[in-house]
Amino acid sequence: MDSSNIQPTEEFPEDAPLRAQVEKLLHAGLRSEVEPRAYDPEMQQSVLARLQHVLAEEVAKRVEIAGFTLHPYAAEGIEEACETCMYFLSHRQFCALPELQLPVKPDWSCRLWRI
Description:
Blueprint: H1 16-27, H2 41-52, H3 59-66, E1 73-75, E2 78-80, E3 88-89, E4 94-95, E5 102-103
Antiparallel strand pairs: 1-2, 3-4, 4-5
Helix pairs in contact: 2-3
């Protein structure tokens, strides 16, 4: 799904600048930790523990550790995109994972993706 034309909802215009900042960082070549994916509980806890030590305003560091990409991640025939993640708030285009709390786009992905 191409979400480049999807605009943030009118209810949350304050998310747009931060979403644009994340997108700009990734387009500029920020190397995020896409792999290893956090499929097992130990890896998930490891990634979450690292995120807990990063300040909210350290956006680039949070994006790097979470392993964000501007496209879905494909694994074993499953496309992992924010829009199919349990933490995605579709009405806001937002990742509600407590350690992230970032505005995202539906076709982005991170290594903390969960069904």
